[in-house]
């Protein structure tokens, strides 16, 4: 009986061990399933990470391309700003030259008007002098023609004597 009891006890222990083994196998299968799911999730995460890294690479390439275009546009904008500054300086110089030319033209116009006024005054004075000269000449002719002792062919003015030449 002692042997039976030991055998029964061994059988009980074997049953408990079988239950323990079954439980352990179940836990192991669950752990293996969880491990497989984890590996699958990890593989999915790696694929997602690879896709994200590829997308980041594309974004970085796009940013680099746009940075290059921006740098080129910035350089072109600086060139245009410099050209604009040069053109504005040239325009300012031309504006100054135009102002000086307009002032000179105004001065020349004033001088021309003054010269024209002076010319008109001189012409008027000349015309008056001619009239006076004509009148004086006419008076002298009349005087010569009507004066006593003068011949019409004598061209000397009255009161002018010829020196005696003996």
Mean pLDDT: 86
**Which structural class fits the helix and strand makeup?**
mainly alpha
User: End-to-end distance, in Å?
Assistant: 216 Å
Overall geometry comes to rod-shaped
The DSSP helix count reads 1
* H/E topology pattern: H
What are the segments in which pLDDT stays under 50 over at least 5 consecutive residues?
A: none
Helix content: over 70%
Radius of gyration: 66 Å
Biggest pleated sheet: none
Number of strands: 0
Strand content: under 5%
Fold and architecture overview:
The chain is mostly helical and 166 residues long. The protein has a domain at 8-109. The protein has 1 helix and no strands. The protein is rod-shaped. It has one helix at residues 2-146.
What features would you highlight for this structure?
mainly alpha, single chain
Please give a quick description of this structure.
The protein has 166 residues and is mostly helical.
Lay out the secondary structure.
Layout: H1 2-146
């Amino acid at each position: 009986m002692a042997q039976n009891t030991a055998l029964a006890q061994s059988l009980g222990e074997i049953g408990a061990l079988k239950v323990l083994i079954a439980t352990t196998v179940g836990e192991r299968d669950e752990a293996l399933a969880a491990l497989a799911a984890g590996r699958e999730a990890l593989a999915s995460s790696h694929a997602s990470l690879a896709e994200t890294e590829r997308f980041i690479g594309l974004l970085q390439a796009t940013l680099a391309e746009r940075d290059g275009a921006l740098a080129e546009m910035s350089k072109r904008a600086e060139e245009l700003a410099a050209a604009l500054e040069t053109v504005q300086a040239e325009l300012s110089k031309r504006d100054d030259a135009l102002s000086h030319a307009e002032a000179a033209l105004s001065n020349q116009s004033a001088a021309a008007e003054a010269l024209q006024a002076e010319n008109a005054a001189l012409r008027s004075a000349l015309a008056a002098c001619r009239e006076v000269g004509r009148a004086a000449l006419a008076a002298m002719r009349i005087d010569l023609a009507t004066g006593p002792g003068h011949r019409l062919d004598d061209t000397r003015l009255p009161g002018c004597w010829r020196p005696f030449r003996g």
